[in-house]
Amino acid sequence: MIEISLDSLDYKRTKKIVDSMLRTNYKDFFKAIVSCEKNIDDEVVLDNIYENFLEDDNISSFLNSDISYIADKELGLVNEEIIEDEEDFEI
Protein backbone atom coordinates (compact mmCIF):
# COMPACT_ATOMS: atom_id res chain seq x y z
CA MET A 1 0.00 0.00 0.00
CA ILE A 2 1.25 3.48 -0.86
CA GLU A 3 1.51 5.89 2.04
CA ILE A 4 0.42 9.45 1.35
CA SER A 5 1.23 12.46 3.44
CA LEU A 6 -2.09 14.24 3.84
CA ASP A 7 -0.28 17.52 4.41
CA SER A 8 1.07 17.42 0.86
CA LEU A 9 -2.29 16.85 -0.86
CA ASP A 10 -3.35 19.70 -3.07
CA TYR A 11 -6.44 19.84 -5.29
CA LYS A 12 -4.88 17.98 -8.23
CA ARG A 13 -3.41 15.17 -6.16
CA THR A 14 -6.63 14.79 -4.18
CA LYS A 15 -8.66 14.69 -7.41
CA LYS A 16 -6.39 11.99 -8.82
CA ILE A 17 -6.85 9.86 -5.70
CA VAL A 18 -10.62 10.39 -5.64
CA ASP A 19 -10.90 9.56 -9.36
CA SER A 20 -9.03 6.32 -8.72
CA MET A 21 -11.30 5.48 -5.79
CA LEU A 22 -14.39 6.16 -7.89
CA ARG A 23 -13.17 3.84 -10.65
CA THR A 24 -12.11 1.00 -8.37
CA ASN A 25 -14.78 0.94 -5.65
CA TYR A 26 -17.61 3.44 -6.12
CA LYS A 27 -19.86 1.79 -3.53
CA ASP A 28 -17.37 2.11 -0.67
CA PHE A 29 -16.43 5.62 -1.77
CA PHE A 30 -20.12 6.58 -1.69
CA LYS A 31 -20.61 4.99 1.72
CA ALA A 32 -17.51 6.71 3.13
CA ILE A 33 -18.69 10.15 1.98
CA VAL A 34 -22.20 9.60 3.36
CA SER A 35 -20.72 8.27 6.59
CA CYS A 36 -18.57 11.39 7.00
CA GLU A 37 -21.30 13.85 6.02
CA LYS A 38 -24.11 12.25 8.06
CA ASN A 39 -22.03 10.70 10.87
CA ILE A 40 -23.40 7.21 10.18
CA ASP A 41 -21.22 4.25 11.07
CA ASP A 42 -23.74 1.43 10.66
CA GLU A 43 -22.69 -0.34 7.47
CA VAL A 44 -26.13 -1.93 6.98
CA VAL A 45 -27.69 1.54 7.00
CA LEU A 46 -25.02 2.79 4.58
CA ASP A 47 -25.68 -0.18 2.29
CA ASN A 48 -29.40 0.62 2.34
CA ILE A 49 -28.74 4.28 1.54
CA TYR A 50 -26.51 3.24 -1.37
CA GLU A 51 -29.11 0.83 -2.75
CA ASN A 52 -31.82 3.50 -2.49
CA PHE A 53 -29.53 5.96 -4.24
CA LEU A 54 -29.03 3.52 -7.12
CA GLU A 55 -32.73 2.68 -7.42
CA ASP A 56 -34.05 6.26 -7.33
CA ASP A 57 -34.28 7.55 -10.90
CA ASN A 58 -34.97 11.06 -9.56
CA ILE A 59 -31.43 11.30 -8.23
CA SER A 60 -29.29 12.22 -11.21
CA SER A 61 -26.09 13.02 -9.35
CA PHE A 62 -24.26 12.27 -6.14
CA LEU A 63 -23.64 16.02 -5.94
CA ASN A 64 -26.20 18.11 -4.05
CA SER A 65 -28.41 19.99 -6.50
CA ASP A 66 -27.53 23.33 -4.89
CA ILE A 67 -23.81 22.71 -5.37
CA SER A 68 -24.46 21.50 -8.91
CA TYR A 69 -26.39 24.71 -9.64
CA ILE A 70 -23.58 26.87 -8.22
CA ALA A 71 -21.01 25.00 -10.35
CA ASP A 72 -23.16 25.37 -13.49
CA LYS A 73 -23.59 29.08 -12.73
CA GLU A 74 -19.82 29.53 -12.34
CA LEU A 75 -19.29 27.74 -15.66
CA GLY A 76 -21.78 30.02 -17.41
CA LEU A 77 -24.24 27.20 -18.00
CA VAL A 78 -27.13 28.91 -16.18
CA ASN A 79 -29.27 31.51 -17.93
CA GLU A 80 -30.73 33.62 -15.14
CA GLU A 81 -33.50 36.08 -15.80
CA ILE A 82 -34.00 38.51 -12.97
CA ILE A 83 -37.58 39.42 -12.14
CA GLU A 84 -37.39 42.70 -10.27
CA ASP A 85 -41.02 43.08 -9.29
CA GLU A 86 -44.02 40.81 -9.67
CA GLU A 87 -46.22 43.84 -10.39
CA ASP A 88 -44.43 44.29 -13.72
CA PHE A 89 -46.05 41.08 -14.91
CA GLU A 90 -49.80 41.51 -14.96
CA ILE A 91 -51.99 38.76 -16.26
SSE diagram, text form:
Layout: H1 11-24, H2 26-38, H3 43-55, H4 65-74
Question: Can you offer a commentary on this structure?
Answer:
The chain is mainly alpha-helical and 91 residues long. The protein has a domain at 26-79. The protein has helices at residues 11-24, 26-38, 43-55, 65-74. The model has no long low-confidence stretch (mean pLDDT 85).
Short synopsis of the structure:
With 91 residues, the protein is mainly α.
- Terminal Cα separation, in Å? 67 Å
β-strand amount:
under 5%
Contiguous runs where pLDDT drops below 50 for at least 5 residues: none
- Rg: 19 Å
Keyphrases for this structure?
single chain, 4 helices, 91 residues, mainly alpha
